[in-house]
Amino acid sequence: MTKIMIVDDEQDLREMIDLMMKKEGFETEMAQDGMEFLEKIDVFQPDIVTLDVMMPGLTTKEILQQLREKNNNTKIILLTVVRYSEEEKAQIIKMGNIVDYITKPFDFEELIDRVKFSLSQ
Amino acid sequence: MTEQKLTERKVVQINYWKRMLKETNEVIGKLHGIVLLLHNSVELPDIINFLNKVRVNQQLRVIYITFINSYDRIQETLKEHPLESKKLYVIDCVTPLLVDFRKDTPNCEYKKPPSNLEQLKNILMKKIGEKNPNIVCIDSMSQFINFSTPTDEELEDFYNFLNSIKQNVWGLSDDSIILFYDDKLGPSQKLPTISIDLVLKLEVVRDKPSWKG
Fold first, then answer.
1. What is the pLDDT along chain A (121 residues), one digit of tens a residue?
2. Are residues A105 and A79 in contact, defined by beta-carbon separation less than 8 angstroms?
3. Any bridge partners for residue A79, and if so which?
4. What is the dihedral of CA A9, A12, A13, A14, to 10 degrees?
5. What is the share, in percent, of chain B residues with pLDDT greater than 90?
6. Taking Cα atoms as reference points, which of B6, B5, B9, B143 lies closest to residue B65?
7. Closest CA to A82 of B182, B158, B53, B79
8. If residue B127 lies in a helix (H) or strand (E), which one and from where to where?
9. A74: domain range?
């Protein structure tokens, strides 16, 4: 079974994505911040992760840095309210692990489609 | 209904909305005090358009602290949608989260986002003291509070935040703090009433109205 990890500090959104992914047949795990994510990733070993950009504690940049140090190449889809410039978007996509970038608020069907597409790449 | 009656009804509708728009623009034109601006996920050009209507033709200093738009994105947008007669200073709290380190510029400083209202207050009070702005925009308060289900403690923190800013820094009656709030999280069940001078709701309609063809 394909494993997905949902990392978001907004509990309602986290649980909603979790429910949707379970319905799609994924095995899921959740984390509410970067620290919990880094603790759980080695045990759960997800195939893909949805990661909120703005969470308390570790920044996304710090989380990605720690994944690099672990040589962990798990695919990550960023979920964010942040509007970046075109140049920054290109820079983000080139960063390690990140395979896609979705701006909140998003449509759940779109998220599922993009998760499946990223897994097929 | 006859075609003539339909046309008359359309004319009444158009006149009604023209009058509403005129009155709204008058309120925005004279904007002052603490303003809570509820909206449905407005984009940056909508914010610039809104700011352009505030005290038109006055040379104003604006501090814009952002948890939504990166400074790069702001610059990109300003090329197509210029901010008229206002000098903008940006506190960018989103770029440091993800992209490479950027040096502060005369019009922007990069900061790690505050994790609570007390930290936000400290950043703002320092910067207001330095820059003496006429308008401060916080985009967005949705990062700190959800008015659809706020706890009493969250509301108290919010009021304390507003009171601190008002008492310690804010002196002139013409000055404004605009608190942007995206109500996509749900309808605001407990709208703050204390310490807020004006609540505005900005609905951005992307579709053309039917009478525009």
1. 999 999 999 898 999 999 999 999 999 999 999 999 999 999 999 999 999 998 888 988 899 999 999 999 999 999 988 898 888 888 888 787 899 989 887 889 999 999 999 999 8
2. no
3. A52, A102
4. 60
5. 41
6. B143
7. B182
8. helix B117-131
9. 3-80+88-120
**First-to-last C-alpha distance (Å) of chain B:** 20
Q: Are residues B23 and B113 in the same domain?
A: no
Angle at B203 between CA B190 and CA B58, to 5 degrees: 100
* Domains: count for chain B: 2
- Return the CATH number at B201: 3.40.50
Q: Find the domain containing B202 and state its range.
A: 32-212
Q: Are residues B72 and B2 in the same domain?
A: no
Considering only the beta carbons, identify the residue of A61, A91, A105 that sits closest to B97. A61
Let me know: does A54 contact B113? Beta carbons within 8 Å: yes
What is the ipTM metric for this complex?
A: 0.78
Number of neighbouring beta carbons within 10 Å of residue A120:
6
What is the CATH number for A109?
Answer: 3.40.50.2300
DSSP string, B7-44: HHHHHHHHHHHHHHHHHHHHHHHT--EEEEEEESS--H
pLDDT at B208 over 70: no
Q: Are the beta carbons of A83 and B44 separated by less than 8 Å?
A: yes
Answer yes or no: are the C-beta atoms of B10 and B207 closer than 8 Å: no
Residue B173 pLDDT > 60, yes or no? no
Chain A residues lying within 8 Å of B98, measured CB to CB = 53, 59-61, 82, 84, 92, 95
To the nearest whole angstrom, how far is the Cα of A41 from the nearest Cα of chain B? 20
